[in-house]
Amino acid sequence: MAERTRRRWPVLRLGIVGVVVLAVVAAAVVTAAVMLRDDEQDEGNKIIYGLTLNPSGFDPHIHISSELGIPFYSVYDTLVYRQPETFEIFPGLAEDYEISDDGLVYTFYLRQDVTFHDGEPFNAQAVAANLDRITDNDLDSGKARRLLGPYTDNEVVDEYTIRLRLSEPYAPLLDGLSQVYLGMASPRALAEYTKNSYQWHQVGTGPYMLDEVVPGERIILRRNPDYAWGPLYYAGRLPDGTVDPVWEANAVDTIEFRFYTDPPTRRDALESGEIQIVGELLPLDAEALAGSASIQTLNTRVPGMSQLFFFNTQREPTNDERVRQALVYATNRTAIVDAVFQGQSRVAYGPLASNTPSYDAALENPDSPELSYPFNPDYARQLLESVGYTDSDGDGWLDQNGERLQLTMVFAGWNQLPDVAQLIQSQWREIGIDLQLIQAPDFPALSEYADEGNFDLIALYDFGVDPSILNGFFLTDGARNWSGFSDAEVDGWLTAAVRESDSAERDRLYASVQRRIMERAVILPIRDLTNVHGYSVALDGVIFSAQGWWPLLQNFQYSP
Amino acid sequence: MTRSPIQRAPPVTLLAAGLLGVLLLAAVLAPRLAPHDPRHAVPEDQLQSPSAAHPFGTDYLGRDVFSRVLFGGRRTLGMALLAAGVTLLPGLAVGVVAGAGKHAAGPGPWLDAGLMVVMDALLAFPHLLLALVMVALLGSGTTQIALAVGVAGLPAYARVTRAAVIEGLARPHLIGARAIGAGWGGVVWRHVLPGIAPTLLAFAGVTLSWAILNSAALTFLGYGGDISAPDWGVMLADGRAVYRVAPWVVIAPGAALSLTVLAINLLLNGSRR
């Protein structure tokens, strides 16, 4: 009997312990599930959008990153828009505008039915508050101020009319006003937050409202239900102004942005359904996904500068035009584009991508090698020999007066520049040029190399529809003339082009600029920039603004 | 307890020693053994599978992976050996001084306490994190990595050395030796160190394994400086973008790395018996 009781007890005890353990585990699982759900309110139709870069700041009036426009282009409206395909100027917050005959005064007639997300009315005072903020020197605006060009001040004519005054004619003004950097923010929100904190509390008039920001982790946008003042090509409204029920049924209510800065992770995140859309896919991943049943890809061409390296024209040996020309001839750009980008973008022949207005196609003419620089290592070697570089000691490296031809190339980790740079290094090695590679960890570090002129070649880039982006880079006193280039005629053409409103004349002026830049080999162009997106087949209406980087979130349709 | 592991140890140890020898020799003789220049890119030949011309295939830029693994060993093992040196010499010195000082007269105990406070503060950080912080301060490059990894390993080595020295000094015959007037330095040098040498040597091996893995981790993360110089960590990082279509790009450097560490650990196992 005693035997049996003793044997039954352990079983009972084991049972009790088992029940307790199970209960604790169950409680833990429930708690964990509740905690993970936390504030999961009704998010409606939701997608998760992968960003490829975590910019140093998100305030479009201050910061310059193209990435910030991916969410914020849809938080703001701009006075005018550019049609994504034709690049035509469309009415935005301004229904209409007038330019004075001397090109010095722009009068904007504003829409009267627009309200900011915080309930503030949109009017001429609001536009004035934005312009005053951007031109305030204390703001340290990186790009917005530059886009305003020779803007001096504004005049509020009446509640819905504002004049912008310039000190000289400036043709690219409307282009600048169409970019997210000159998006119109709520004056109340601007006044409520400081220069640095506003970026986490942005308020605009756009189709999406900023709901939550966890820096470095996520940005959440929610659809603006009152939005009825988008440009004509924004979806969502029937011709009579009422909401399109077909569109509304699949409109995206909530968009969460997360960061996928490491390129190989993007395809995995897409395929696992963790995100519904991401840009800047690795070319091999884009190729693999092209055959996928659940993911589609879209290759968007981005107008603006081509992906290029600036030569330092201020220090030896790249201050010699013949050395620069030799280096361009020594670079097999077709091989680079085919191998690194799997042929998904076009070889570049000049400072502008070929889909930018005023691009000069004559640069590609194989009959003008002084412009198109067909790959020719023998000619490169001859040119270098004419300057005095030979392999006098037979060690395989070119030298002059006992000094080896050694160059330093600086670039950052994005756009597969490390691969491009390593291929160039290998190609130049063939003719005896010793190229040292320096990968800058981030944009501030890269700018430091640029500002100090501590490079022979440096990869820098800007985008935009208007060819006037060339001005800052190639004017003798240009703010971003990192190559230290100076050519009186180029200065004249560039200065005339921004004052010129006739587009044929602008084309002519910019063609001259592009040819001169290539004749004098100020840059080593590589390829036109493209951005390959991958997105779920359940997502439709994926289209990007004229500037190429920013999606029109309003047009997205998601039916999972 | 059976004696069989002891009996089995020598062949494994021999094998490990042989493997390590081959790997070291390959690294040293890389310039003579490598069939191609490790930086020479032939973009038309990108991602070729292993063949007679390219025993380990080619990478995304069409470079020979075999040559890159050979040259990569030079860089990775070179960095790790330098790092181990940076750990061992000061680590040994600090450990001996602190260990001998603990029960010595005069300022000894103070010295021990002071040194150990510093070492413990460093030990509070995970190994790799400490190395990362140091590389962030020193900048990218192989020397910087070796220094960072070396210093990060130092506190552990100093701690182990100190403990061994204290234990060694506590042996009865040494207490006796000190009682009859033998000097601290002499006792430690002549009697303690030879006794604890196997422990110190074994932990030196562990330190080297750590140094290899941590150096590779730091170059994997992009702190190696020259991006086109082959290095096992860099090769693994580069390979992540292409491993699905070209697994050889990551298998080769990954295997080299694992085999090296495995060989060191097996060798240690054997020598401890």
Radius of gyration of chain A: 28 Å
Task: Quote the distance from N terminus to C terminus of chain B.
Answer: 14 Å
| Chain pair forming the biggest interface | A-B, 25 and 20 residues
Strand content of chain A: 15-25%
Count the helices of chain A. How many?
A: 18
The first-level CATH class of chain B is given as Mainly Alpha
- Which CATH architecture of the largest domain in chain A would you pick? 3-Layer(aba) Sandwich
Q: How many domains would you count in the coordinates of chain B?
A: 1
The unreliable regions of chain A are 1-5
Give the strand order of the largest sheet of chain A, numbering strands 1, 2, ... along the chain: 8-9-10-1-11-20-12
Briefly note the CATH topology name of the largest domain in chain A.
D-Maltodextrin-Binding Protein, domain 2
Integer count of domains of chain A? 2
Coarse shape of chain A: globular
Please tally the helical runs of chain B, counting DSSP H or I stretches of 4 or more residues: 10
Secondary structure: helix percent of chain A: 25-40%
Largest sheet of chain A: 7 strands, mixed
Order of helices and strands of chain B: HHHHHHHHHH
> What is the CATH architecture descriptor of chain B?
Orthogonal Bundle
The CATH superfamily label of the largest domain in chain A reads Periplasmic binding protein-like II
Mean pLDDT of chain B: 89
Summarize the structure.
The complex is a heterodimer of chains A (560) and B (273). Helix content of chain A is 32%, strand content 19%. Chain A has 560 residues and is an alpha+beta fold.
How would you describe this structure to a colleague?
- The complex is a heterodimer of chains A (560) and B (273).
- With 560 residues, chain A is of the alpha+beta class.
- Chain A contains 18 helices and 22 strands.
- Chain A has two domains: 4-284 and 533-558, 3-Layer(aba) Sandwich (D-Maltodextrin-Binding Protein, domain 2), CATH 3.40.190; 307-528, Dipeptide-binding Protein, Domain 3 (Dipeptide-binding Protein, domain 3), CATH 3.10.105.
- Chain A has helices spanning 2-37, 69-72, 124-135, 144-147, 173-177, 187-192, 245-250, 264-271, 283-289, 321-329, 333-340, 369-372, 377-387, 417-430, 443-452, 469-474, 488-499, 503-519, and strands spanning 46-51, 80-82, 89-91, 94-99, 105-110, 151-158, 161-166, 208-214, 218-223, 254-259, 277-278, 295-301, 307-311, 399-400, 403-404, 406-412, 434-440, 457-460, 523-527, 530-536, 539-540, 557-558.
- The relative contact order of chain A is 0.14.
- Chain B starts with a helix and ends with a helix.
- Chain A binds chain B through residues 263-264, 282, 284-285, 288, 335-336, 338-340, 413, 418-419, 421-423, 425-427, 429, 436-437, 439, 441, and chain B through 37, 39-41, 43-44, 46, 60-63, 222, 226-228, 240-242, 244-245.
